[in-house]
Amino acid sequence: MPLEPLVCAHTAARVSSVLNRDVKQFGKQHLFDGSEETCWNSDQGTSQWVTLDFPRPVKVSQLHIQFQGGFSSRLCTLEGCRTGEELVKISELYPQDSHAMQISFQLEETVLDKLKITFGSSTDFFGRIVVYHLGVLGERL
């Protein structure tokens, strides 16, 4: 069965911060808009994150992510849960400090309603993270 993008208009996304609170220019909507000209840019801080609440259960298989080189994360921790449950760690990923789309992250397939991606160690001295594209692929249940 082919993988499908799981983030849709009904997926509730939240982010830890937005650079200078400029949501119009750097907000979470730019994670999924498909444009190479826009991005989510976090503010300074030691740990940045993105959460996704899916409208129905999903089985996540892959994560695609494109950082801006110099503003990437050395460690991404993925946590997930079903509605009403506590988040549990699914995986730790070690992305490259690169502007290239990174699609090699194969995840152990897990059924969940919520996914949290924590960017624990930024390559930027101030802890900022810049993401041009975030893709979550798998199967809707």
From TrEMBL:
UniProt xrefs under Pfam families: F5_F8_type_C_2 (PF22633)
F5/8 type C domain ranges (all copies): 1-66
Compartment list: Nucleus
Protein name, UniProt field: Nuclear receptor 2C2-associated protein
Keyword terms of this UniProt record: Nucleus
Family the UniProt entry places it in: Belongs to the NR2C2AP family.
Main location: nucleus
Origin: domain of life: Eukaryota
The keyword RNA-binding appears for this protein: no
GO cellular component: nucleus
